[in-house]
Automatic annotation (TrEMBL):
4-aspartylphosphate, modified sites: 55
Xref: CDD domains: REC_YesN-like
InterPro entries, per the entry: CheY-like_superfamily, Homeodomain-like_sf, HTH_AraC, HTH_AraC-typ_CS, Sig_transdc_resp-reg_receiver, Tscrpt_reg_AraC-type_HTH
GO molecular function, one term: DNA-binding transcription factor activity
Record keywords, A-Z: DNA-binding, Phosphoprotein, Transcription, Transcription regulation
Residues annotated as domain HTH araC/xylS-type: 252-350
Protein name, entry field: DNA-binding response regulator
Length: 365
């Protein structure tokens, strides 16, 4: 996720900008807020945020001074000026120091959302270009590219995973700190912003990779950025994800999952997301390997379990329906009759009668 900080001497203004949009949903993490611009300036080198939203008129240091001194110190964060005053001189100064945007108070939610979306696209594109260059040539072209790539990591570390994932529908999971870049040869490159993201990332991989032959490796952390290209080469070599796609294993894993979770209201989208397959490919693969549709397989599991419950206890039919994943009692009844030829109540009576007759026969013997 991209990192953002807010600087304003008015506490209510800081609260307002934090709450005006859902920053996490937009792909941003609010890492800190400052009511003192001097403290904000001293922290910028340590924090290295992607974006700084700052007020203009603040005691001790104006927002424009904050931008100017940051640029002089080599800080390349994107700045957005927020002000209650439409001031031509301020606007001209903002342009001089490469300020991304100038927003007037009171803030408009849609304007803020539009600005952050433009910022997100710009920053992601910049990082993408640097990573592509590293991946294709193993070289870093200039100092600016170094800064962009460093800003993509947390505490000056970068974690990269490379995989041939053309058959998988990998989500951009913000909570996993993953950014995905599709390379020209069909390979995917994943940028993980912190070490803490490695374990959940590979756990998600393994959940969908029961069918894959995966050998993985993690390079040692390097003390300096100058060794990144070597580290990258090591990562590619040690993580030879030579995936031998085994459809049978994937389908088997799906069947096990359905057998264990039939009582829940499972949707095709939920199942496809869990196994990182598109809905269309999931349905085609399942039908090809089993001869029946995924929906048909799930229905069969539910109906057989429902039949067992109807015979084994006297629970109301509506309760039985709920226990096998149907919240709509009427729909359950229609599916059951189509499957067995009888309504649930009629089926229960027939089975109970058959059991009684069998017991009488045993007594007569």
């Amino acid at each position: 996720m991209l990192r953002v900080i807010f600087v304003d001497d008015e506490p209510w203004a800081l609260t307002g900008i934090k709450n005006i949009i859902d920053w996490n949903q937009e792909g941003f993490e609010v890492i800190e807020t400052f009511s003192d611009p001097r403290k904000a300036f001293k922290s910028l080198t340590r924090i290295q945020p992607d974006i700084v939203f700052t007020d203009i008129r603040m005691p001790g240091m104006t927002g424009l001074d904050l931008v100017r001194e940051s640029r002089e110190k080599g800080i390349n964060s994107e700045f957005v000026i927020v002000s209650a005053f439409s001031d031509f001189e301020v606007a001209r100064g903002a342009l001089q120091y490469d300020v991304f945007h100038y927003i007037l108070k009171p803030l408009d939610r849609e304007e803020v959302r539009t600005v952050v979306e433009r910022l997100r696209k710009k920053l992601i594109s910049a990082k993408h270009l640097v990573l592509m260059e590293v991946f294709q040539t193993g070289k870093l072209m200039n100092e600016r590219q170094r800064e962009v790539l460093v800003s993509a990591a947390v505490h000056n570390h970068c974690y990269v995973a490379v995989a041939d994932s053309k058959d998988y529908n990998w989500p951009h999971k913000k909570d996993m700190c993953v950014e995905q870049f599709l390379l020209s040869d069909g390979t995917s490159l994943y940028l993980l912003s912190s070490k803490q993201c490695l374990e959940p990332f590979f756990n998600q991989w393994r959940m969908s990779a029961d069918a894959c032959g995966v050998s993985s490796g993690i390079s040692v952390q390097r003390p300096g950025f100058e060794d990144f290209d070597n580290m990258f080469s090591e990562a590619v070599s040690s993580a030879q994800l030579e995936i031998d796609y085994s459809a049978n294993s994937i389908v088997s894993a799906i069947q096990v999952y359905l057998s264990r979770n039939y009582q829940n209201e499972l949707s095709l989208s939920e199942i496809s997301e869990r196994f990182y397959l598109s809905e269309t490919y999931l349905c085609e693969l399942f039908k090809k390997q089993t001869g029946i549709t995924l929906t048909g397989f799930l229905t069969a599991i539910r109906m057989k379990r429902a039949a067992h419950l109807l015979v084994e206890n006297e629970a109301p039919v509506q309760q039985v329906a709920d226990k096998v994943g149907y919240s709509d009692y009427g729909y359950f009844g229609r599916i059951f009759k189509r499957f067995f030829g009888f309504t649930p109540s009629r089926y229960r009576k027939i089975q109970h009668a058959a059991i009684i007759n069998k017991n009488f026969s045993l007594l007569e013997e």
